[in-house]
Amino acid sequence: KNEVEQSPQNLTAQEGEFITINCSYSVGISALHWLQQHPGGGIVSLFMLSSGKKKHGRLIATINIQEKHSSLHITASHPRDSAVYICAALSMEYGNKLVFGAGTILRVKS
Amino acid sequence: GAVVSQHPSRVICKSGTSVKIECRSLDFQATTMFWYRQFPKKSLMLMATSNEGSKATYEQGVEKDKFLINHASLTLSTLTVTSAHPEDSSFYICSARNQGYTEAFFGQGTRLTVV
Predict the structure, then answer these.
(1) How many beta-carbon pairs under 8 angstroms link A with B?
(2) For A29-51, how does the pLDDT look when each residue is reduced to its tens digit (9 = 90+)?
(3) Which residues in chain A have their CB less than 8 angstroms from residue B95's CB?
């Protein structure tokens, strides 16, 4: 079992739909990252959070420390949101290194 | 967010040659830099962690003599793939972090093809 599990692995949505990607982790963390990787490969850090909720534009990230669970929501999805979304736990058990989920491949159709 | 610049974005080299990849933090001091390798349709695999002014710490199974890492300044780390072989073809990406901050920022990645 991976220390960081994401679901779903693949997600296809219609433009405008509300999207949720889930992340569960089993390691102790000091923070959790949500990352976006576009087909070209570059990675953008969307959020880093250790409690509660953060919002940036159409993106919302939440974390429940007790349940060891985080979600990334995209409101009013758009084809340009198509990318791989990666959950990464900054793990105290691994010397404050990032432990990555397998990623969720999102495709938003127009 | 902070900017990390990685260069080159793509490189093709012949077997047996060495390739150097640079990772620069443009607007902050990167006390720690991480080098990752990503296989197709897989997540990132940490290769090594480098702290400015000291030797890099390599993950288990990563050959330190093959993947030379230098972090000589607070804004620059380099990864040199020595005596490259086709199996070294991969996507390499760096990230940088400033001391005291938990957020890491990623470079654009380098697609290495060894022919």
Answers:
(1) 50
(2) 989 999 999 888 889 999 999 99
(3) 43, 98
